[in-house]
Structure formats: structure tokens, C-alpha cells
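Progress note, sequence design subtask.
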């Protein structure tokens, strides 16, 4: 009696042809695609899925070739957008080192990305460089430019790059009485915040608690910055750094910052605006506007600590809220002070905060214009965005 083992020894392993016939009807490649582009991102998350893909692609030729499939490129492109939105330089580098040509890929129509830092949800139809430009992420723009330089410098590539960079909205400047150039803030930005202030001032504030009208006004304000009904389209969105500068100017005189008056109001307005700025600017607030502005004033390059780069305040608290549905933290119970810690009483905006932040904004604007001049011949600035 022949056992299964003896038959296997006699007949040998199944031939490739027999194996193919056995697998007929089962599309292994399609199964792989579904696993890596649909199932795993939902279970592990997109970034952890890419870690698996990265490691597997180095194990053997089969996986290396498989991960060059266009469907995998689409998954990687989504990771790239997520990393740009969240200011994750490591992941941008990791993806583009493997696939610099992703910079040439067209964005999937109405791509939805939710920032894992600010919790804003974006509807994106722009290329990744344009996204970084519209959000004024200068360090990210330079990093993407490094990988643009690795591609074949065709006329179409140069034109696409120039078109993306031209979307930067330069600040309008005006000489003040002292002959110093200052950023001009559109009146709409002041009006947006002042509308909340006016409502809150009409109500009796007890122990820093807000009345119903004040809460309603803040909900409207919050929904403008963190809309729940529809995702954000970058071209229509307010310039949050310019709005933060307007808020600093309104609140730093102390009239809305006493320990018992409008305490929660300033935390939920100024703090909220801080909570939707890009991680690149958030690191500066974590380091401390006083330290960074002082270094800039002295003509020195500000040194950003590991603590700030990890988006933590100097007192150890997280800068951004840990979850979208968390009703505490920045924008709810405190705002970030000029020294990179929780502000005094959680809500106080110190004098000259706006001056320091304006220095940071102006410095970034000047550096971008210099960078742009080094990339293209003529600058065609976008019209300033004044929507509030």
C-alpha cells in the first residue's frame, strides 16, 4: 500500500504547469493588491502599511517587482499627501527616495485627507508641491524641491514646478510711522474675530465661564476653521497664520485677558487658531516665539529643540490635541504662550506677541521669495486671500 509520502517521493514536487493549473481562476496578483491597497491600510493604518511594503520589497525580486505596480503607486501617493499635510519630513523622504516620480502623478480627484495633527479634513485636487505652497510650509517646499531636482528636467516639469510655486500668496506690506515695513492684515480677518468678541462682551461672564450666546458664537468660529459639514478646499481657506497675527494684535493689550474675564474665550479663539496652523509653524511656537524671534533679530539661525520638533510644549504637554473629538487641550482649555508653555491662566496673550510672530512670518516670506527667485526667472504672485 502506497502512502501519500511514498507517492510524493516517487512523483516528485508538482510541476510549474500543474501548479498553474491548480491555481487557475485565482488571481494572486489581484489578491495582493487588495491586501496592500485596501485591507491593510484600514487595519494597520496607511503609514504602517507602507512600512510593511518597504520591508517586503527588499526581501525578494517578486515583491520588488510587485510593488512597482501602478495601483501601489496610488497608495503611496496618498501616503505622500498625508505626510506633507502633517509635516512628516521622514515619510516624505522615505516615499520619494523610492518613488520620486510620484511628484509627477496627478492627484486622484477630490482626495480626502484628514490631518493627524490639526484634525482638519481637506478635499485635495492639487499636486503635493502646490499643497505645501498654499499652506506656506517652506521647509516642506524645499524638501520636495530636492526630489524635483532628481527628476529629468523636462520643459513640462519645470513649468509644473513654477506653476506650483507661483501659488504662494506674498503678504502685503506697508511702512508704518516709524518707517518699518509691517504686514497688512485685511480688515475681514479682524472682523471675523471681533464678531465673537462683541457677542461675548455683551454677556455676563462669571468665573471665566461663557454664556449660551458666546458658546454659539465660538461654535460658528470653530466651524469656520474646523468645518464639519464639508472638507476644506485650500484655495478657499483662510490664511490661518495671518488670522493668528490678527488675533494676537487684538488680545495682547490685556483687555480680554484678565484672570476672570473672557478667560475661556481667548483660549477657545486664539488657541483654536494655533491648533490649525501647520506643524512647521507649530514647532516654532513650541520652541517659544520669544527665543526664535530674538535669534532672528540677531541675524542668527534659530535652533529648534527635539522637544519642539516632536510638537510638545516646554512643559511637556502636546501642542495638538491627541484626537479630533477631544474637548480639552489647545483651543479648548489653554493657548500656547510666547515662551512655548501654556499661557498664564491658560489664556493670556503677552504684549509684543504679535511683533514676534510677525517677525517669524516676514522671515519665512522673504526666504521663500529668495528661494523662488533661485528657481524661476520671474515671480507671478497669487492674489492675497482675504476670505474670513
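Output:
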Amino acid at each position: 500500500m502506497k502512502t501519500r509520502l511514498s507517492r510524493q517521493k516517487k512523483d516528485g514536487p508538482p510541476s510549474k504547469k500543474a501548479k498553474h493549473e491548480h491555481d487557475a481562476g485565482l488571481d494572486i496578483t489581484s489578491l495582493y493588491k487588495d491586501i496592500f491597497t485596501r485591507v491593510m491600510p484600514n487595519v494597520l493604518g496607511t503609514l504602517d502599511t507602507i512600512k510593511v511594503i518597504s520591508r517586503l520589497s527588499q526581501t525578494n525580486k517578486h515583491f520588488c517587482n510587485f510593488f512597482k505596480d501602478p495601483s501601489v503607486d496610488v497608495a503611496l501617493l496618498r501616503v505622500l499627501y498625508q505626510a506633507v499635510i502633517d509635516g512628516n519630513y521622514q515619510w516624505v523622504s522615505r516615499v520619494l527616495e523610492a518613488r520620486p516620480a510620484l511628484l509627477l502623478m496627478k492627484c486622484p480627484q477630490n482626495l480626502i485627507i484628514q490631518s493627524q495633527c490639526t484634525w482638519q479634513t481637506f478635499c485635495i485636487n492639487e499636486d503635493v508641491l502646490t499643497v505645501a505652497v498654499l499652506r506656506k510650509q517652506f521647509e516642506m517646499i524645499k524638501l520636495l524641491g530636492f526630489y524635483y531636482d532628481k527628476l529629468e528636467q523636462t520643459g513640462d516639469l519645470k513649468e509644473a514646478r513654477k506653476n506650483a510655486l507661483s501659488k504662494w500668496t506674498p503678504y502685503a506690506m506697508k511702512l508704518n510711522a516709524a518707517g518699518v515695513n509691517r504686514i497688512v492684515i485685511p480688515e475681514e480677518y479682524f472682523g471675523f474675530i471681533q464678531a465673537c468678541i462683541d457677542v461675548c462682551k455683551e454677556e455676563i461672564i462669571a468665573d471665566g465661564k461663557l454664556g449660551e450666546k458666546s458658546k454659539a458664537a465660538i461654535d460658528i468660529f470653530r466651524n469656520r476653521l474646523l468645518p464639519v459639514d464639508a472638507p476644506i478646499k485650500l484655495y478657499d481657506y483662510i490664511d490661518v497664520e495671518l488670522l493668528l497675527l490678527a488675533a494676537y494684535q487684538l488680545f495682547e493689550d490685556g483687555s480680554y485677558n484678565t484672570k476672570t474675564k473672557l478667560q475661556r474665550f481667548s483660549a477657545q479663539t486664539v488657541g483654536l487658531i494655533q491648533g490649525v496652523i501647520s506643524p512647521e509653524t507649530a514647532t516654532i511656537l513650541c520652541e517659544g516665539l520669544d527665543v526664535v524671534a530674538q535669534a532672528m533679530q540677531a541675524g542668527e539661525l534659530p535652533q529648534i529643540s527635539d522637544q519642539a520638533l516632536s510638537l510638545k510644549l516646554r512643559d511637556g504637554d502636546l501642542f495638538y490635541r491627541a484626537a479630533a473629538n477631544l474637548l480639552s487641550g489647545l483651543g479648548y482649555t489653554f493657548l500656547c504662550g510666547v515662551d512655548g508653555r501654556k499661557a498664564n491662566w491658560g489664556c493670556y496673550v503677552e504684549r509684543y506677541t504679535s511683533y514676534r510672530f510677525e517677525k517669524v512670518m516676514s522671515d519665512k516670506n522673504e526666504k521663500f521669495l529668495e528661494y523662488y527667485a533661485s528657481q524661476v526667472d520671474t515671480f507671478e504672485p497669487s492674489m492675497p486671500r482675504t476670505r474670513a
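Residues 273 and 344 are 18 Å apart (CA to CA). Work on this subtask will continue into the next period as scheduled.
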